[in-house]
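Lab notebook: predicted structure, single chain.

Context: the supervisor wants predicted structures on file for every construct in the current expression panel, including those that have not yet been purified. This is the next one on the list. No modifications to the sequence; it matches the entry in the shared construct table.
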Amino acid sequence: MLDSSETGISQNYILTNLKKGNANLIASTPPVMFYPHMPQAPLQPSTLYIVATPIGNLEDITLRALRTLSECNIIAAEDTRRTRQLLRAHDIKQKVISYHKFNEAKRSQTILEWLEDGQTISLVSDAGTPGISDPGQRVVRATIKSGYRVENVPGPCALTAALPASGLPTEEFHFMGFLPHKSSGRKKKLESLKHTSGTLCFYESPYRITKLLSELLTQWPESEVVLARELTKKFEEFLRGSPAQLFEYYAERKPKGEFVVLVHRT
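Prediction complete. Output recorded below exactly as produced.
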């Protein structure tokens, strides 16, 4: 922290106002250094890096993620077109290969061969964190089983973007990802959760959101529901209400964008 002689403000005044959360103090004085400069750790050979990327806003990417993508040997991407857009936005020129659910078995073996050669591989999904309802788990398990290193470069995730802003309890929550497409499978899954405490979290597409709301209305009509859509994008929206209220809302509107559905049963 800066010495008071450099700022003209007493140390006690600084400490007191920081405790009060006075944002104007920091904005109107020279920068306050809370953390020392940390040296950048070089990428380790024969390592698979799980790199989280923006779910919408391209600014939502860490400095470490940008450096990892810049310095690795190869980027394995779920959607090479979207990944190249991200790389162009940050002036990163790197080799990109596809890694998605239709080729993950073949690609996983290729990635293991590259790791054996000492290469560093960055794994990225379409958006967010690989392995969270996106391809990635298979190659991570194979990498660990083969004795190579896996390192996470944390960052954006639709679940963690939605839950804190939902207003629902966060002390305990359970993430279910996408429910089965078939009605019978969805019903069975929801029934299995009837004794699960905490906030329930799902991902859902715009094509099945009204179906899910109808099912929630049948299963837990008194529950609190939050629909988070288009997170971090221009039309980000949080809709809060009962299953009946939200079902009625979308009875008159066409759902758009991917949804995070959060349910708290009262």
